[in-house]
Design goal:
The protein is an all-alpha fold. It has one domain: NCX, central ion-binding region (A middle domain of Talin 1, Up-down Bundle). 81% of the residues lie in helices and 2% in strands. It contains 14 helices and four strands. The strands form two sheets. It has a two-stranded antiparallel sheet with strand order 1-4. Helix 1 packs antiparallel against helix 8 and helix 5 runs parallel beside helix 11. The chain starts with a helix and ends with a helix.
């Protein structure tokens, strides 16, 4: 493999992760300093900021004519976020979700996933579709800020501990430093996205696989590293609302904002291949649907749920690589392989959730 491709991929990922960290740190502290609630900062600035690599890469891909990477990045990241990040976080510690807002966010995540499939049925997500999606993220953010006023004190304290300024760094020097962090973060995101897209396209050409497959795997995993760091560290520290809220908020942002903006700037919108329609997007929807009962039953993501999520991701990745190696392109074959994966794993997760709910009710005498 050409060393230039490796350098572009590694350098791009490092720049993206570093840029996202600087952007989130500077924006979160600046927002708290001007009086925005730490809860709102966590639900918006941080959740959206950790998706900034997806935004940078997808917009760059669409603008440069590699729209398949833009779509694959979003769909792959959403699958990665739920199955691998929440799965890993739940194995570290069962995630007891007290945040009532999750009752709204998860159905919205499912709804926008289905909307993506519907918008892509004609093979393209055009500028009108992009405008619709981006309008959705504005409405979602506004409603989230309004809804945050109803959160209980435990949730407020969790976000205060993580994102509050704790009485430090409130002077003009700190404000200037936070602005520098934001600008440096944005610069690294732009640079990193350019390197990563160039490296990903070169890698796809080298191994004779589609841009979509590269976007669904290497690019999706790489741009999700900020979500991995945020959610896993939150789980380790016992900040379970943050671990879950970050993933769900990022998934919604990926579809509404990332694909919305990408289709607006792309010369021809975002191409949606038959492969994505028959296999990858339905898997993303199935994963979102499978997560719904996990959140609602006893408000807990158990270690068993986490293990099933991780197994689901391994199965998906194996099928993705196999289909690419065998150059499977028939929509009927892709749909069949998707069903063979999605149905058993989704049913297993639903059964585990029902069992968890049964035990929860039994312990509580219901």
């Amino acid at each position: 493999m050409d060393i230039t491709i490796v350098l572009l991929l590694v350098g791009g990922l490092v720049a993206l992760v570093g840029g996202a960290e600087l952007l989130v740190r500077g924006a979160a502290k600046l927002a708290v300093a001007v009086g925005i609630s730490p809860l709102v900062v966590g639900l918006t600035v941080v959740a959206f900021g950790t998706s900034s690599p997806e935004l940078a890469v997808s917009v760059q891909s669409a603008f440069s004519g590699s729209a398949d990477i833009a779509l694959g990045n979003v769909v792959g990241s959403n699958i990665f976020n739920i199955l691998l990040i929440l799965g890993l976080s739940a194995i570290i510690t069962p995630l007891i979700v007290n945040q009532q807002l999750i009752r709204l966010d998860v159905p919205i995540m499912i709804g926008v996933s289905i909307l993506l499939l519907l918008l892509g049925l004609d093979g393209n997500i055009g500028r009108i579709d992009g405008l619709l999606l981006f309008s959705g993220v504005i409405a979602y953010t506004a409603y989230g800020i309004w809804q945050s006023r109803k959160e209980n004190q435990d949730v407020h304290k969790e976000y205060e501990d993580e994102y509050g300024d704790k009485g430090k760094n409130t002077g003009w020097k700190a404000t200037l430093l936070n602005i520098v962090f934001i600008l440096a973060g944005l610069g690294l995101l732009v640079l990193g996205s350019d390197w990563l897209v160039k490296g990903a396209v070169s890698l796809a050409r080298l191994f004779n696989v589609s841009d979509l497959v590269i976007g669904l795997t290497i690019v999706a995993a790489g741009t999700s590293m900020p979500e991995v760091a945020t959610s896993v560290m939150a789980a380790i520290k016992g900040e379970r609302d943050i671990a879950v809220g970050n993933v769900v908020g990022s998934n919604i942002f990926n579809i509404l904002a990332v694909l919305g903006l990408s289709s607006l700037v792309g010369p021809n919108g975002i191409n949606v291949s038959q492969t994505a329609l028959a296999f990858d997007i339905p898997i993303m929807i199935a994963v979102a649907v499978a997560s719904l009962p996990v959140f609602f039953t006893a408000h807990t993501i158990t270690r068993l749920d986490g293990g099933l999520f991780l197994a689901y991701y391994v199965g998906y990745t194996w099928l993705l690589i196999r289909n690419a190696a065998e150059k499977v392109t028939s929509p009927e074959t892709l749909t069949t392989s998707m069903l063979w994966l999605a149905v058993p794993f989704t049913m297993a997760i639903l059964a585990a959730s029902a069992f968890d709910e049964f035990l929860h009710r039994r312990r509580n005498g219901n």
